[in-house]
Task: structure prediction
Amino acid sequence: MEKILIKDVHIVNEGTITHGDILVHQGIIQEIGESISAKSSDVHVFDAEGKYVFPGVIDDQVHFREPGLTHKANIKSESRAAVAGGITSFMEMPNTNPQTTTIEKLEEKFAIAKKNSHANYSFMFGGTNDNLEEILKVDKKNVAGLKLFLGSSTGNMLVDDENVLEKIFSSTDLLISVHCEDEDTIKKNLAIYTERYGEDIPIHLHPVIRSEDACYISSSRAIELAKKTGARLHVFHISTAKETELFTNKIPLEEKKITSEVCIHHLWFSSEDYEEKGTLIKWNPAVKTAADRDGLLEALLDDRLDVIATDHAPHTLEEKSQVYTKAPSGGPLVQHALPAMLEFYHQGRISLEKIVQKMCHNPAILFQVEKRGFIREGYKADLVLIDLNAPWTVQKENILYKCGWSPFEGTTFKSRITHTFVNGRLAYKNFKVYDDVFGERLTFDR
Result:
């Protein structure tokens, strides 16, 4: 593997922005300095022309739909979109078909990714009411963690037996990630509006059905159980300002036993957008009020919320165009998540350093990912070059998701990702993803 010398970059890393060069050899960052010279003829010099460089983004929650749901997406198609969006590592969820609830099915997914993933990869193992024996077989050094659906599940993945749930929390030292929505609350709300409207419930009632109370009841219960058992808990996609009160910023991330995530769509959209976007922004948990959206950003900035993710979950347009009760929840986001956050930077609402902290550093710290998430000598060369002043518009012809649509279609972003390096290899350049597959299996320092 050739040496690459990236010259003239603004390096956004560990709370600072410095100007300099980065030397990469055999997929590893070998040297970072103010001015590095190419000392041999085998060094490929890459002039970054003053662009900004981030560590590769680590997305801790995606649904790439393989196996079993590949009419929507697959690991190859969505990892291509991910590297185009500056996401160089992802953690994929277990609610595929078949579900990833046995070691055998887990290893089958790793085999698919090894062959097809353009980005680095790991998978969450799925918990159910009856697979504790399989959970205890999971190797915490080689698997991202355990995913439990405490609401809004597919198949048999809803873990609703409280005795089983406590036993799981007490028995494993895996990081436990949870989807928190109270099913009883949702069912009662849904029954009210189904009686009134039938299946064609107006979409603006989605956050009324999947309400603030549904989220808070479930999140607070999970946190209470984690405190009782000492489990390592990570709460996915916080969607309400009220829930942010459950988390602390009083201790360093490395010392937290209970952590949290916020997703792009809950930071960008609000209930005011349902009129224009309809079911295209139907997610679980629901996009809620503008006050919730603002409260989430505030909690992100003050470190109550720890990481930014996508919950990338594509469906076909045909599926999303159905009436409320039949239109599935979820949408594609990996290609546009980082450009969306950079819009907040241009608006003066967040710094580049904070974006890198929440999208790169903190996922690496929280999941204890080995040698990624930072621009450091000796670390893997997952790097993203960004032109902060290169406007572009999201259009069908530049959307890379297999489903072919985006909730951001028609949006003009001020910043453009120009290059993405995965393990020191150029995986993406100016709207083109290269055919070679450079993704590696993530490992964890646990």
About this structure: The chain has a mean pLDDT of 96. The first strand starts at residue 3 and ends at 13. The two ends are 29 Å apart (CA to CA). The domain at 57-367 is CATH 3.20.20.140 (TIM Barrel).
